[in-house]
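Researcher: Structure prediction, please.
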Amino acid sequence: MNSANTPNSGAGAVSAPLAENEHVKELLGILKDNGKDPTGLTALLSHVGEMESFVKLAENKIAEMKSQLDSMKEIQDHPIKHALQNAIKALEAKVAEVKAQIAELKGNIIEGCKNAVAAFKEKGASVLDRLSSFFNIKGGLQAINKNIDATIRIDDRAIAAIKNFSKEYHETGRHLKNMGRVLTGKPRIDAARESGKLAKAFSAPYRADRAIQIKLKGAVTAMIVKLEQLEQKTAAKREEKAAAPAEKKPSLAEKLNAHRERIKQKDLERPTPERVKAQGLEV
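Model: Predicted structure follows.
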């Protein structure tokens, strides 16, 4: 996607909700005033708002991961800590990238609205039937989806690492307990205790982030679908216009005949001059 370079699509405009942008509001007003359905555009705005909310939730979960990692005494001297530190850094980088992509997406939507308003003022209401052509955002949405998929994979690897650590942790604990039981003459414990509680608590923020990423992907996918629906609507309008019978232009002979008829009609409509009475004939 290309970043918008107008003052109204700068950092301040992009950080604010799209519905508050002057170009967006102007286009929505034009659609309403001209009897055009604004729901396609409002749906795009709504999906962007959802995406921003999910990114904020993901940032909160990463902060929770950091806090949890610092407080987990069980892993202070274990390689799992280094692995999870790397996972958190990777998650931070991906979420920051998605956040920047969403900001760029918003800038392009603002620019698209601005261009649509300008085209309407120049060419009239017909441009409102091809609204999707003003929003070059599908490639950007697909790029966001790729980053979301990568983020989910990072969460999956972290969850798997936590599960393996938890299993190893409890297995080690079982061996230590068995040593004590042997020394006291008690029978060994053959089965390892369920490691679910530790793994569940430790992996909770990663699972929560994974769920957020899936919802974020759903919002992006829904936005792509809505954009494609607008594109299909534009294509249908174009086909409808192409199928309409073209207005037949008159031939040169027809134009000449019409001109003669107009002259003839003017002659008929011209008032008849009064006859001059001949002098000497009055009675």
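Model: Residues 138 and 224 are 6 Å apart (CA to CA).
Researcher: Thanks, that helps.
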